[in-house]
Backbone:
C-alpha cells in the first residue's frame, strides 16, 4: 500500500473504524515507513490537544439561549420570554412545554429559566391592569419587516381607544394590507404590551382575539373603553362620530369624540358621508387619512 493510501486511513486506524481488510496492509506499511508512522502519532497528539481545549457550555448562556419566566397574574399562568433588548414573547395560559415549543417554532432558539427583570415585569403588570405603558421595551429585531412595522403602529394607539385594521394598514404605509394586519395581530408575539386588543373591525364592535373575546372585552374595559357602546354602534353600522359645532369627525373612542355633548353628536356610516356633509377628519385620531 502506498503512502497516500495509508495517510487517508490513519485516523480510521487510530479510532478503530478501519475495515479489517485494510488494517493489515496499513500496519505493515507503518512498520517500514517512518514518515507515515510519525504521521499516525501526530494525528493522535492533535486529537488529544483538541479534547483538552473543549469547554463545556454553561447551562444557561445568553449567546445561545434566550430567557423565560413564569408569572402568576390573576390566577392565570403567563409565560414571558425575553432577551437583552427586551420582551420577545408572552403567552397567556398554557404549559411550559407548549410555550417552549411555540418559542422554538417562531425563533428557532432554546430557552433557559431566569427571573424576569423588574422593569419588564412592570410593563406586563401595567398593561394587564389597563394602565399606560409609557416606554415599551420590546425586541422587534427578529421579526419580519412587515410584522415589526405593523406592531410598532399598534404601540401608537392610545390607551382607552380602538382603531380599525384598515387604519393600522394605512399608518403602516400598506393601505391594501388589511388582511395582513389581521394576521400580524393574531400572531402578535408580545400581546398586552403591544396592544393588538385595541384593533377592531372597520364594521364596528370589538372583533376576535387570540386569547378569546372575553379577555379582549375585559382588557378594553380596564382601559376605560365603553365596550357596550361600541357594540350598539356596530348594530347601527355607525363607524364615526362628528361634532355639529366643530365639524370634526372622529373614531367613537377618540378622546375628543367622548367630549362631544349628546345634542351635538352626529353619527356617520362611511368616510364619504362625513366628507360630503362638510366634516373634516380629526387630526388626533386620523379616522380617514394616514
Residues:
Amino acid at each position: 500500500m502506498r503512502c497516500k493510501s495509508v495517510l487517508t486511513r490513519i485516523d480510521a486506524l487510530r479510532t478503530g473504524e478501519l475495515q479489517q481488510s485494510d488494517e493489515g496492509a496499513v500496519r505493515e506499511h507503518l512498520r517500514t515507513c517512518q514518515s507515515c508512522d510519525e504521521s499516525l502519532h501526530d494525528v493522535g497528539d492533535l486529537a488529544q490537544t483538541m479534547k483538552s481545549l473543549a469547554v463545556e457550555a454553561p447551562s444557561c448562556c445568553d449567546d445561545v439561549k434566550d430567557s423565560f419566566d413564569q408569572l402568576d397574574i390573576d390566577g392565570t399562568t403567563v409565560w414571558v420570554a425575553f432577551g437583552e433588548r427586551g420582551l420577545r414573547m408572552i403567552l397567556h395560559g398554557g404549559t411550559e412545554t407548549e410555550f417552549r415549543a411555540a418559542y422554538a417554532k417562531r425563533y428557532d432558539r432554546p430557552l433557559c429559566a431566569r427571573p424576569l427583570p423588574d422593569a419588564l415585569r412592570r410593563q406586563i403588570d401595567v398593561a394587564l391592569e389597563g394602565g399606560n405603558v409609557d416606554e415599551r421595551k420590546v425586541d422587534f429585531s427578529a421579526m419580519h419587516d412587515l410584522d415589526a412595522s405593523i406592531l410598532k403602529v399598534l404601540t401608537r394607539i392610545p390607551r382607552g381607544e380602538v382603531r380599525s385594521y384598515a387604519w393600522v394598514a394605512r399608518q403602516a404605509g400598506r393601505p391594501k394590507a388589511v388582511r395582513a394586519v389581521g394576521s400580524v395581530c393574531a400572531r402578535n408575539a408580545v400581546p398586552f404590551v403591544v396592544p393588538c386588543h385595541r384593533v377592531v373591525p372597520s364594521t364596528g364592535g370589538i372583533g376576535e382575539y387570540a386569547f378569546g373575546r372575553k379577555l379582549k372585552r375585559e382588557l378594553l374595559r380596564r382601559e376605560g373603553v365603553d365596550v357596550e357602546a361600541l357594540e350598539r354602534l356596530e348594530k347601527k353600522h355607525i363607524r364615526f362620530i362628528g361634532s355639529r359645532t366643530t365639524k370634526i369627525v372622529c373614531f367613537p373612542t377618540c378622546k375628543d369624540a367622548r367630549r362631544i355633548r349628546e345634542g351635538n353628536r352626529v353619527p356617520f356610516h362611511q368616510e364619504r358621508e362625513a366628507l360630503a356633509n362638510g366634516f373634516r377628519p380629526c387630526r388626533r385620531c386620523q379616522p380617514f387619512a394616514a
